[in-house]
Amino acid sequence: MAQETLRIGKLAKLLGTTTKTLRFYEDIGLLGPAMRSDAGYRLYDVKATSHIRLILHLRKLGFTINNLKKIFVKDKKQSFRQQVLSLMDEKLRDTDEELVILQGRREDLAARHQALLLTPKNRPSECICDALLSPCTCIVDSSTK
Asked: Mean pLDDT score of the chain, rounded to an integer?
């Protein structure tokens, strides 16, 4: 019994990706060379489809192409699962660090927003000195006129 295969366009649509992406993964070695039809179309069997689906899921988790190249190398001391866990640990640490940075930015922006809200009403409407956390230079001294 012949194994069912999908042409590249149908597979790309099924997996919610593009044919360009699938060709790219083949070009960089994440996928082995696709089987070819008599007309030269790329064909993918169930095993290749599962592998592509795994790659796409890992990419959605934020794994880079270089991460994937490393974990798909067979001659490793760690199992595939251990390698994925290790990369997830890294991603969690990086995400925690990014969150701390973003929280700091948010607090800074909130403080500047509050300062701008509390700007005295007698200042010119264009004055945003308080939000810039700088001494106001916008007040025109009426005694110099």
From this structure: 90
For 99-145, how does the pLDDT look when each residue is reduced to its tens digit (9 = 90+)?
999 999 999 999 999 999 999 999 999 999 999 999 998 866 544 44
Please list, in sequence order, all residues whose beta carbon lies within 8 angstroms of the beta carbon of residue 122, skipping any fewer than 6 positions away.
139
Enter the tokens of residue 4. Answer: 């069912």
pLDDT of residue 1: 41
Report residue 6: phi and psi, to 5°: -120, 140
Identify the structural domains of the chain with CATH numbers, from first to last. 6-117 (1.10.1660.10)
| Residue in the block written with tokens 């194994």 | 3
Contacts with 61 (C-beta within 8 Å, 6 or more apart), sequence order: 88, 91
Q: Above 80 in pLDDT, residue 46? A: yes
User: What is each CA distance from 145 to 53, 108, 127, 140, 141, in whole angstroms?
Assistant: 74, 37, 20, 9, 8
The reported pTM is 0.71
- The answer to whether the beta carbons of residues 42 and 78 sit under 8 Å apart is no
Strands (DSSP E) found in the chain: 6-7, 35-36, 42-44
